[in-house]
Amino acid sequence: MPLAISFELSDRDLERFNQAIQAARESAGHQESDAILAAAGKLLQDVDTGELPDFIAQRLERLDALIAMVRDEGWALPDQDRSRVLSALVYFANPNDIIPDNVPVLGYFDDAIAIELCVRELKHELEAYEEFCDFRQGEADRRGMDPATVGRADWLGSRRNELQDRMHRQRERDFGTGYGDSSGYARKGYTSAWRPGMLRVR
After folding, report:
1. Helices (H) then strands (E): counts for the chain
2. What does residue 109 show for φ and ψ, rounded to 5 degrees?
3. Engineering a disulfide at 59: which of 63, 112, 118, 188 sits with its beta carbon 3.0 to 4.6 angstroms away?
4. What is the per-residue DSSP string for 58-109?
5. How does pLDDT run across 169-186, given as a tens digit for each residue?
6. Who's near 116: CB < 8 A, 6+ residues apart?
7. What pTM was computed for the model?
8. Domain segments of the chain: what residues?
């Protein structure tokens, strides 16, 4: 019989997580993007989603989307946006988690909360990328192509530029030029369209 438990993080709780994320960013220094992506990807590769609470498994899917957004050659994030996403991902390259990952069941709880904070910070980037993946999937299906092989096709580039321009306008409207918080990620699920993800769902 399932048991529903809801909880709320206080401002003090959130501040602790934000401090941990900031400390990870500072300790990473000028860590190479490949190292950050590899460390965050290892978290996804090592985890057994079948053994995790849904709360954590769902947020690992969001981490997978963040990693795919940077790795996706078709999406081709501009350098400034790429740096913003990598800065959010660096927490997952930090071996000194608030809760060590090898703690049964709860080991990924802090990662799930950190992912949620990253998603709030990058909600416009995620929404634009999800729409891009849907467009690429639809066009590839229509043209009889494998979406995994679609790179910089003219029709893809036009839509990508349009979505990234909108993403920048929305970020500027909500956050100005810096980082900020928002009222959460509007979309309930994540695209079923192809993306270069890493999460192994069992």
Report:
1. 7, 0
2. -65, -45
3. 112
4. HHHHHHHHHHHHHH-TTT---HHHHHHHHHHHGGGG-S--SS-TTSTTGGGH
5. 998 888 775 444 433 434
6. 59, 62
7. 0.73
8. 12-175
